[in-house]
Amino acid sequence: MSADWPAAEERLRARDPLSRPFWAGLEEGRFLVPVCRACERPHFYPRPLCPHCGSREIAFEATSPDGVVISATTLSRAPEPQWEGEVPYTLAVVRLDAGISLMARAPNDTKPGDRVRIAGEPIAAPPFLRLVAIRED
Ligand SMILES: [Zn+2]
What positions does the domain ChsH2 rubredoxin-like zinc ribbon occupy (predicted)? Predict the structure, then answer.
């Protein structure tokens, strides 16, 4: 991690309490997603109620970060001023083998059907990691 990355306590404080286990796990190389104890289905993003059955009984469980790209779009204009130095960059929607979908940065030549693995990449602002899709060859 870079020298200007905030200390662990600062990263913890700045993160949304609902998603802290996800980000903390990602920092440790573990992919923890919320799973409902009532219906046993995973979901993403972390939230207080299960989107499938409404239960509040949710726990984080380790799952595979592997999946397939459903769609990919390369942005040539930054949606926010802080990303102007990063365009062009590609965002991919990834369907994980675990049955959840998420969005992640991806190589600019990413295409639907590519097999990828999700990882965390340090950034300066909360949540201090961004999701990146790394192509599996
Ligand atoms: Zn449920």
Answer: 23-57
